[in-house]
Predict the structure.
Amino acid sequence: MNAKGLSRFFTVALLATSIQVGGMGFAFADQTILNVSYDPTRELYKDFNAAFAEKWKTDTGETLTIQTSHGGSGKQARSVIDGLEADVVTLALEADIDAIAKESGKIPADWKTKFENNSAPYTSTIVFLVRKGNPKGIKDWGDLVKDDIQVITPNPKTSGGARWNFLAAWAWARAQNGGDDAKAQEYVAQLFKHVPVLDTGARGATTTFVQRGLGDVLIAWENEAYLSLEELGPDSFDIVTPSVSIKAEPPVALVDGNVDTKGTRKVAEAYLQYLYSDVGQKIAAKHYYRPFKPEAADPNDIKRFADVKLSTIDEFGGWKEAQPKFFGDGGVFDQIYKPGQ
Amino acid sequence: MAHEALAPASVGTSEMVRSATSESRLARYGLIALSLAFVGLFLVLPLAIVFTEALRKGPGTFFEAIADPETWAAIRLTLLVAAIAVPLNLVFGIAAAWAIAKFEFKGKAFLTTLIDLPFSVSPVISGLVFVLLFGSHSLLGPWLGSHGIKVLFAVPGIVLATVFVTFPFVARELIPLMQEQGTSDEEAALSLGASGWQTFWYVTLPNIKWGLLYGVLLCNARAMGEFGAVSVVSGHIRGMTNTMPLQVEILYNEYNFIGAFAVATLLALLALVTLVIKSLLEFKFSAQIAAARKH
Amino acid sequence: MTASLPQRWQFRQPSVIPGFGLALGVTLSWLILIILIPLSGLVWRSSALGWSTFWTLATDQRTLNALKISFGTAFLAALANVVFGVLLAWVLVRYRFFGRRVIDAMVDLPFALPTAVAGIALTTLYAPNGWIGSLLTPLGIKVAFTPLGIVFALIFVGLPFVVRTVQPIMEEIDREVEEAAATLGATRFQTVSRVLLPGLAPAVLTGFALAFARGVGEYGSVIFIAGNLPYVSEIAPLLIVIRLEEFNYPAATAIAAVMLIISFVMLLVINSIQAWSRRRYGYGA
């Protein structure tokens, strides 16, 4: 081969690669903040960010860009610990924000007191999603351990939502057995024998139930259950609210260590505060989160939430105690899964 | 390549020799059918799923999904990362193959194994090692932070993770090829007075260009498709640090299945485009390939 | 470079080819920078555990089961890939048929498709209500959400490694060898099994090793199809993720280190066999 042929060969080859090189330009607004959140809040914050940016513009004249990052709650917390420059975190579990406070020191240990209602502007609860018409007649937690029932719930080790599922089941069984924790553990162990697939995240579990047609009942966040009805087929599923559930409090916090370096404290604080405003509460209710102040939301939205007896995390000694006891290495969940069972 | 069995020598009939140098027609069709079934089951059907899901609601929704600005940002980022990572590994791959294939030295198998190592590292870990290295709690993290250098959750981190994952591809493709070719061509060129660089440019490179191109294509495909490692170091900031595979995950988790599979088809198409380019080059330079084969 | 070393032990055999220093220098610097420094960080982190904790963790029943599942399914998948990969390479190299180029191009698909997409697509296909799953379920065969599903995902992921390492070597095979075998009275079956396949063995071994190594670490495609039940279908990389969720970095890195060491030793053995067979027989990859 001659040199000319070779150079022509490489020109063609290079041309092929050069098509790939594109410009990377970002429009920089006056202010930019980053909200690091967990999976199911995408729709909520899409609406809320637009509302807040508009309000900020009217109030200050500044154009605000709100970036969002979504993923599993624990993974998101780790990213913030490892240096992701979040201005605010809006996660699924207190334990995850505690971890950021403890591991990185960027959030003060008493972060829960900084905003109203334990820094939870909206709450949710755990409900069942069943196939249309409820063919297996699932009414309450007790029905989930019947012989022919398959239950879909994600892995509590990897999914924040699944930990709420686990504790809700426990709360029911404990109430059922007059506060006997040993009986509750027996029930929960039974329950997980009916789980054929442990997805790593809440949305993975929803997909398994809805798209793959696996299982008779999906244990899910109330907001997720309503969203799947809306997005994936109101004709195919029903929501069943059990007699006892748990008050799931997805908390929010300001990442002090980051807002001070970035000079975004004022806007980030206003952002979180706005979640408690009438507008914020209304948007939360619209997306099936139970607002902290129901009176601020649209009554029609509020009507959708069934009355249910709610246990709280405090009955488990708070997350600081519950997390290692139930979900830590060698904790209750690990004991439930013993080899050969 | 596909020349027919040559005329028989002294032993047996032509039919016997044919049956000894090629399979019977039945066996041939059987083998083709078997491999087609395998390819169909493991490659074509999954790809078909991706395309059917993407086009479930017609091409209109498909293009709408792709036209989303966040998706465009993801495409740009993916191409940028590949455009940095692939050339770096190309240079490394040639150097490694040169050292390993053209020389005999102690510890060669060890070195080759080190090069193979990224294949065996779980993608989760490939990302994690850079978090351990550059994260806020690492040795380098605080220093980088105080100098305002962002590695993690920014483009450099994504590039590093991609380079790590695609590290062996070019080298792995070239090493067997260059070993096969031996050193006699180079020795001849050198004895005729060519310099080292001239030898490499005019003798070695033409010999290995197909393997090289192949390695680059594989490296590129993997660079654009990497999910696990990049997911750990990206930070998932929408429109900023999401590559195409991460965008697929995000869309999928938003129940935007059409969008997710649409972006996935783009990735599949990008891979197919590079392969079409390869085929075109092969066609264009077919005479040279034939010559190279003879040699 | 060799001058300073004693005469009896030579680092490298003399050669007239230049550029050894430069090539090895570039290789080693890049290797150290991109691979060794990051991986040493991993080992350093897991060393924080101390030997006894490390050992308890590594020999924990759940870890052992996960490792067994990861290595077992990767082994089976690599084996299946050797059989079908060699077959596919053979068909692509030796036969001319309609659609050959398309198939050839598609072999690289598993590299390009993000592993998560592959996982989702395979699960869609093999779930009880999927195209293939719905055909298998009446027969009592369950693929998705069982260890078999993991094997299927790993076959997908590892296929190109076998095909692409065997293919080039197959193309280099000299037809005269086969003709010689034929003239000596060998049947086709004997020619293939006694003459051709042994020559391909080193390349097949490399392909097997790479597919196996890749399968052991695979995460993205597997978690969708595995079912992820502890002791049954929980893979080692998932266990790493679980440890990370507990913010237990040392434990996560310890499992990773165990996997790394096993894979490394395995690859080293295979590469050494090849280097040895190359020196001895002068062929193979």
In short: The radius of gyration of chain A is 23 Å. Chain A touches chain B through 39 residues (CB under 8 Å). Chain A has a mean pLDDT of 88.
